[in-house]
Predict the 3D structure of the following.
Amino acid sequence: MQKLMSSCTAMLVGKNATIDGSTIIARDEDAEDGVNPKIFKVFPAKDYTGEHYVSKYNGLTVEMKGQGCRYTATPNGMPDEGRWDEQGINEYNIAMSATETEMTNARVLGHDPLVENGINEDSMVYLVLPFIKSAREGVQRLGSLIEKYGTGESNGIAFSDKDEVWYFETGGGHQWVAQRIPDDAYAIAPNIMCIEEVDFNDHDSFMYAPQIKDFVEKYHLNPNSRTFNFRNIFGTQDEADAYYNTPRSWYGQKLFTPSLKQEPTSQKIPFIQHAEKKIAVEDVEYFLSSHYNGTPYDPMGTYASGTPEEQRKFRSIALDRNQSSCILQIRNDVPAQYAAIQWINFGFYCYSPYVPFFTNISDTPAKYKYATDDAQPDKSAYWLNKLLEVIVEPHYHEFINEVNDFRDRCQSYGVGRVDTITKTAQIQNSANLINYLTEQNMKTANHVLNETHKLINQLLHEALLNSKFQFERGDNL
């Protein structure tokens, strides 16, 4: 069941490329329509032995076994169509983000069709993240599942621990490769196959399905026998990619490697890239909430004189399908018990703030773990931020400065909270630490939600005062 609509944008950063030595994997989760209520939950450790897992989305059946650890996730608020755990960090500080929607070309699919009830996005985190103690183990476990059950989608999946960052891609029903992002590099993944040349002798940097070389050779799939370029063999590289996908890679590399000269529609933009400065969480946030800011292609038309055609030319990262954006940060300069942080942004990313949540916790804030199809901004962080989108978008140029000030204040608050909680966590005894971090997350969430309420109240009053439908007696005299 190859997806008809592509969505999401991902960024991965090695530990020597970040400003503080953290590893980072991050992804925007978009939906095919504008509403897909999201929540933030923590799932406790449990013994999965004997569980008969059946996907509500596609009927995949897996007989599970083994002890699984605690993990965080951002699943759908309404679980009718399956789990869709999407992104999280487990108690061993292993992060996983699943998935980045991709496409396999028709030639490959003719020889290895997608599997209707295979391992798909809705099930991946649940079947992998509770059972792994390193990013490499994540690649190996997901790879073995794809080989056994197949997949009904083409996807990119990210794994990280404190040392390594990996990107895993599926092609066809059973083929896959994974590449370690070099420690001094970053990578951007739009909705295309990204991994380029695979070195089958470099086991530190690449993993792959054991039969993939034979599969490609048997069916004469490689257009260049001198190299094994996964993107060229399995990907699409069509005209739609040039306008929907590659411009997002172009813009990200324009931000972080500005000396590069590339065209937005180029099909040869490299996956692995090196930044010209150290990358901070704030930089990743800026990219994942961007809309070609400062270029003629900005659909908001803010600071560049793009024509209406240019402003609608390329698929923006920030768009109405935005649902949940997570930055999964594993720090290396603090003890493991409080090294992992999940920065979460619900709503329309360029209006709403990223909020830092420590992941060594037993529960999540009430308004972050509740969202139904009913719009209830007083009960749900997701719906509160969606309301902010509804208010701001018709008045973008009137309100954006206030929105940006609000986001900056929340970011400064979040950074300060991370400092404060990290400092005070050092004096907590191990038995109390989980409760302490859980309570501090709730304090952080409450502050940001209160600030969001204040902004909405302010903008609502301004919008009402600026209504076009005002008329006073004597106006035409």
Notes: The chain has a mean pLDDT of 95. Residues 195 and 473 are 67 Å apart (CA to CA). The two ends are 66 Å apart (CA to CA). The chain is about 30% helix and 20% strand.
